[in-house]
Design goal:
By secondary structure, the chain is an all-alpha fold. It contains eleven helices and no strands. InterPro entries: ABC2_TM (IPR013525), ABC2_TM_bact-type (IPR047817), ABC_2_transport (IPR000412), Nod_factor_ABC_transporter (IPR051784).
Length: 257
């Protein structure tokens, strides 16, 4: 890409990002849902189920990393719906008649989703602190938490862009996000995997959410991380690359239809 094209790609990406950022506050119900549902789940698990679940530590400390991941998942799933709305609602066709790089539409959705996730995650952590969450992390560990969450947010955002490009209706986009949102419940997010049946334990131990959650738990609470941080980078670094390549391919195919 020439220097001029790179410049305009950045300008167009920023233009679409500003559009997505404005939508965060204009469509406040999406932000409220992205914050409220994970927080409600956290409160329910801590106060309703927490006394019955033995994890070797205060349950609120155990459950917060999983709630953070659930929060990011809900916040990112909105991207799939927004991308589909833009594609089927005629907005993309309108952009094609303007001096605007069409792929900047995807970049704008990803950046908007990232900011929405940062807001929702920050609120979720503050609520967790109010109900008893007490992390042991120092500054270095908190930087590690930020880095891991940033990788997860960006990679899952691009995955949801792919979902939004795969379907041709908002309802289908909403349904397609469900399996990804359900994964944290089949991991070590809310209960130790050792308590699960053997067939489910094998899946829970070897799906991407478990090493991600164990890495965050280790950074925040000082529990053993082992190889989980490498597995996290492999899973979500790979997801980011595959999702970006797939989204680019699907976008070009939709463009030629």
């Amino acid at each position: 890409m020439s220097e001029s094209k790179l410049y305009w790609a950045i300008i167009d990406g920023w233009t679409m990002s500003k559009r997505s950022l404005k939508h965060i506050f204009r469509e406040a119900e999406s932000l409220v849902m992205a914050i409220g549902l994970p927080v409600a789940i956290m409160v329910m698990f801590v106060y309703v189920f927490g006394g019955a679940i033995q994890t070797g530590t205060d349950y609120v400390n155990y459950v917060v990393p999983g709630v953070i991941i659930t929060c990011v998942g809900f916040g990112s799933s909105i991207i799939a719906i927004s991308v589909t709305q833009d594609m089927v609602g005629g907005l993309f066709e309108r952009f094609r008649s303007m001096p605007l790089l069409p792929s900047s539409l995807m970049v704008g959705h990803v950046i908007g989703g990232f900011v929405r996730n940062v807001i929702a995650t920050t609120v979720a952590i503050l609520v967790a602190l109010l109900i008893g969450f007490r992390p042991d992390a120092g500054w270095l560990e908190w930087f590690g938490v930020i880095g891991v969450l940033a990788l997860f947010m960006v990679s899952i955002s691009w995955a949801f862009v792919v979902f939004g490009l795969l379907v041709k209706s908002v309802e289908a986009a909403n349904a397609l996000t469900f399996p990804m949102l359900f994964l944290p419940y089949l991991s070590s997010a809310f209960v130790p995997t050792e308590t699960m049946p053997s067939w489910l334990h094998a899946f829970a131990e070897n799906q991407p959410m478990t090493p991600l959650i164990e890495t965050l738990r280790g950074l925040l609470l000082g529990t053993p991380i082992g190889s989980n941080h490498w597995l996290t980078m492999a899973w979500f670094g790979g997801l980011l690359i595959v999702s970006m390549v797939t989204a680019t391919f699907l976008f070009k195919r939709r463009k030629s239809e």
